[in-house]
Design brief:
Strand order of the largest sheet: 1-4-3-2
CATH class of the largest domain: Alpha Beta
Distance between the termini: 34 Å
Largest sheet: 4 strands, mixed
Strand content: 35-45%
Number of strands: 10
Structural class: alpha+beta
Number of domains: 2
Number of helices: 2
Mean pLDDT: 84
CATH superfamily of the largest domain: 2,3-Dihydroxybiphenyl 1,2-Dioxygenase, domain 1
CATH architecture of the largest domain: Roll
Low-confidence stretches: 141-146
CATH topology of the largest domain: 2,3-Dihydroxybiphenyl 1,2-Dioxygenase, domain 1
Order of helices and strands: EHEEEEHEEEEE
């Protein structure tokens, strides 16, 4: 059996210093490595290797839909929201939202390059597929349908 250590997400950013400031606040930790045009955050909880790769020519957001941190309770979602707000990050809540064929509670933030992050808990999963049901929502409230 292979045991994975942690997920890795590499994000292209326009300005690594600006993004370091955002992710320092969002994650509540310092980067473990900073180089010219590059930064790495070694997140322990949840286990994540997050790298920021500077691409000054980045014009539009890539094909990435959104990123998330799945939590075990609404209280944890609200704790993330409160910490993000205390750090001066703009947050948005979705409570009892029907998204990704599940009922969820969420809090959202957007990084300087438009990458959307959600802290969420799944309250009820595997909802039936019905016409006009959303497969996944974004922070602007735009839902992609299945």
């Amino acid at each position: 059996m292979i045991t994975a250590l942690k997920a890795h997400i590499g994000i292209n950013v326009r300005n690594v210093e600006t993004s370091i400031g955002f992710y320092r606040k969002m994650l509540g930790i310092e980067p473990s490595k900073v180089r010219t045009g590059y930064a790495k955050f070694d997140v322990q909880n949840p286990p994540l290797n997050l790298t920021l790769n500077e691409n000054p020519g980045l014009k539009d957001a890539g094909a990435l839909s959104h990123l998330g941190i799945q939590l075990s309770s609404t209280e944890d979602v609200l704790a993330y929201r409160d910490r993000w707000s205390a750090e001066g990050l703009e947050t948005r809540e979705e409570i009892g939202t029907d998204c990704c064929y599940a009922v969820q509670n969420k809090s959202w933030v957007i990084d300087p390059d438009g990458n959307e992050w959600e802290a969420f808990v799944v309250l009820q999963d595997n909802l039936a597929e019905v016409k006009q049901a959303s497969s996944c929502c974004t922070v602007e409230g735009v839902c992609a349908t299945a």
